[in-house]
Amino acid sequence: MEPDSALPTFRVDPGTLLAQAAPGQGERVTRDSPALAVMTDLTQAMAATTAPSTTLRQAEQIMIFKGVRMLFVVTDMPSVEGLITSVDLRSDRTLQLVHERGLHYDELSVGDVMTPLASVEAIAYERMRTARVGQLIATMQRYGRNHLLVVEAATEDAPQRMRGVISRAQIERQLGERIELTPIASSFSEIKHALS
Question: Tens digit of pLDDT for each residue in 61-101?
Fold first, then answer.
């Protein structure tokens, strides 16, 4: 075959399926494994994002399509404003907003229920280099969170940036065991919503 010749083609059969990436299983870990073994490194994997104006139904569809349970909320990429998780989509707080505002669920947007970045627990990337999976589990249990963020400190050449995500589901897959969490209110607003 000539190097510049066209390749042979054919017509695609009806019913052909779309290849989809399998969710990353990652290597098998123990509680004593390095914490970096369970971190989704955002320099290696594209972050799943959405806008504050996205409806909750659209956010749910994005999560399903991307195979994730958390989206970064951004207006001006790559600046992060907050997070929305699959738990947020159907939380008591979300249902209370529907009731308080006299709206339908379809009328709420991500911006209405997202967790602002300032309310999210994060771990320094430098700390992650020496941490163990068991320490991540203890941190998630302490704060009652399904996700933790990993933040890389600013340098002379670059600003502080979100470097990774720790997901309870990812740890469970790699560890091969379920991790029990008890949701814990971390702000006055969350406590107020829990009591009402």
Answer: 999 999 899 999 999 888 899 999 999 998 888 889 888 99
Tokens in use for 192?
């107020």
DSSP class per residue in 4-35: TSPPP--PPPTTPPPP-PPPP------TTSBG
Distance CA 28, CA 37 (A): 9
Residues 6+ apart with CB under 8 A from 119: 82, 186, 187
Task: Give the helix/strand (H/E) hosting 93.
Answer: helix 92-101
- The CATH topology of domain 35-195 is CBS-domain (3.10.580)
pTM, full prediction: 0.77
DSSP conformational letter for 137 = H
